[in-house]
Design goal:
With 124 residues, the chain is an alpha+beta fold. It has a 4-stranded antiparallel sheet, with no helix packed on it.
Length: 124
């Protein structure tokens, strides 16, 4: 019968299709949340990772660094002012990704809740 929201089993028990669908949906959602957690990783003896306010700030800074010389030094100073330093191994949730990096949300620690952009090689 079309529109019937119950299935009758051999022993006469009624099982709600809706209830089963909700249970399956919740299970899939929980598995999805569990797999969204990543950690920040550092390189070259560093113990913190720069989390930039936006991709634009990240791109501007990387462009300045690639120029070298005075612009490269200015980029290093600017990074100290605009980027938050977050400890390595800090759990994050990836909100969006592109070829250069990831928009993340910090999940634990003093910066919990912070959203920002990190280089692709700073994420496990």
């Amino acid at each position: 019968m079309v529109g019937n929201s119950r299935i009758t089993t051999d022993d006469g028990a009624h099982v709600s299709i809706c209830k089963k669908a909700i249970n399956v949906t919740m299970l899939v959602a929980l598995l999805g949340v569990a797999s969204c957690s990543h950690k920040l990783i550092s390189h070259g003896g560093e113990t913190t990772i720069s989390v930039f306010p936006s991709k634009k700030d990240f791109d501007d800074l990387m462009s300045m660094k690639s120029q070298g010389g005075v612009a490269g030094m200015a980029a290093g100073i600017r990074e100290n002012f605009i980027a938050k330093k977050v400890a390595e191994n800090t759990p994050v949730k990836v909100l969006a990704s592109d070829s250069e990096g990831n928009e993340v949300q910090i999940l634990e620690g003093p910066e919990a809740g912070l959203r920002g952009y990190v280089a692709k090689d700073n994420l496990d």
